[in-house]
Amino acid sequence: METDLRLESSLWIGNKRYRAVLTGWHFNWTEVDKKNRNKKTISVPVAEVVGVEEGRVEILPHKSVEDSDKDFTVCYVKRSSSGGSYGLLWRLGRTQFSCPSRVLRDQWIKHLRTALKTHSPLRPHRLLVFINPFGGKRKGRQIYHSLVAPLFELAGISAHVTVTDRANQARDYLLKKDLTGFDGVVCVGGDGMFSEILHGLIGRTQQEAGLCENDPSVTLQPCPLHIGIIPAGSTDCVCYATVGVIDPVTSALHIIIGDSQPLDVCSVHHASALVRYSVSLLGYGFYGDVLAESEKHRWMGPLRYDYSGTMMYLSNRSYAGIVQYLPADPLLSSPRDKTRCLSGCSVCSRSTERLFPHSADSASMCSSHFSQLSCDSEDEWVSIKGQFRCVSLTCMSSSCPKSPLGLSPSAHLADGTGDLIVVWDTHPLGFLKFLYRHTNTQDQFDLPFVEVHRVKAFRFFLPSDKEEEGYEEIGSLSGTVDKEERVCSVETVSRTGSQQYLVDREVQREKPNEQKTASSFLCGLCCSKAPAVSVWNCDGEILPFTDILCRVHGQLVRLYARGIEDGAAMHDFSETEKSERSRILHK
Ligand SMILES: Nc1ncnc2c1ncn2[C@@H]1O[C@H](COP(=O)(O)OP(=O)(O)OP(=O)(O)O)[C@@H](O)[C@H]1O
């Protein structure tokens, strides 16, 4: 195949002569001077060629073609620095080549197009696009039509576009309508819109497979359709954490070339029913309170999160709870190993083999990695009980512009695990230090009141009355726990037949006197009526239940993305080295 696709000849760009070579994986052109000496080489991986067109093609402001039978135009991905972000911006590169004859021109077009088909089999031909016209700054429609649609047209992608009239319209469409012939679904919006698509696609796939989503022990079927995210929301965390930049053109190019990034998804259950799926943040305590508070101040726009964060910090709350988790294999990776899940991540690649051991095409098989939440594994559950500032689970780093390394900097996108972060009750300055470290490169887990565990599943429930009395003696709970919630939590434990190994933790941690004073001062300011129970923030939605059971489903969906490209490393490379590195990463 490689030799069939090879083609080499002289080509002209303007009046300069180039030696052009198509090797199968790469298309290179090297300027040749009058003395036949080679000058600079441009190398483009075939997988990153967007399209090959006859004639001299202009793209902006509208596509136009100057027909000439000796010319052809190649459009491809060009990288540039994204400034502050970790990842790289992608832009459309375009070069117009001239050939000495029409026969040679046609040969180049044919070879390049065949190479494209061979080396990027996942390129979409038909896409279903949902635009939320009210997401973020309400620019979804404009972003799609001015920046994305022209690129799709250039790449020959046909798009069936729906501008939504209501929340959950996209989800309902995916659950009910005929999806035959579509290769993927694109959402133009923020994390809420992505979540709709996620729920629709996962639900549809399980319906068709006859699987029950309510049962956490069921191994769910991976979704056959890819998801593309064109960021146009006020929070675009999933896009940032999987691409490295929030940029509609970069995301559109990832979709066009058919990049494929598997993603772990956490299912959240309560009392024998699926509540929601989560990919980024499932947080109780501080993160739940901030979301609940911010909902009261929607009129403030995105500023409401900063305002509510400050208010909730000042109210100095902590909550009693019991956290149980099923640890992931510590030999495979650790949340403290200082690695980063970047494009071509070896931990995630090895996980694909582990999660789908009998399949060459991993996406077509059910995951067999998780040997079920069965009674056999009950002995492996670890339990912690105490008074917490926050308890959170994240299936990805959850990096975002405000927290460039994220909630768990070493978390992986597709290794079938999540990182459970437990922050014990502590003095306000300690908690501030923890929060502040999310905005810089200091290790937020290197604090005595923080622990992090890589897990396959986790449960949370409120302590029983008796246990709670113990916590109340400590003096932090001022309200009462809803009776119904307590009953639910007891039911959950008995339903799962929990015989967990309870590691009781010392709840009361020694606090220096000044810290106590600072704490009571701040407390007096804001938290005279602190509730005894918080809420769960599940990817930006408030859950109506406190006691939950969560399970991570490895690589349940695939995005049109490739993970974060290491911008720092890429900048030190020449064009040739960059594309070589990229080829190796994606081989
Ligand atoms: N036409 C519509 N009218 C109202 N709501 C919609 C519509 N289409 C989608 N939605 C809902 O709007 C919510 C927010 O959308 P999205 O995530 O795109 O924007 P956002 O500005 O990032 O949101 P957030 O306010 O959550 O930060 C989603 O949960 C989605 O279900």
TrEMBL record:
It holds the Pfam family DAGK_cat. GO terms for biological process: ceramide metabolic process. GO terms for molecular function: ceramide kinase activity. GO terms for cellular component: membrane. Residues 122-272 form the DAGKc domain. Gene3D superfamilies: 2.60.200.40, Probable inorganic polyphosphate/atp-NAD kinase, domain 1. It comes from the Eukaryota. This is Ceramide kinase-like. The gene is zgc:158263.
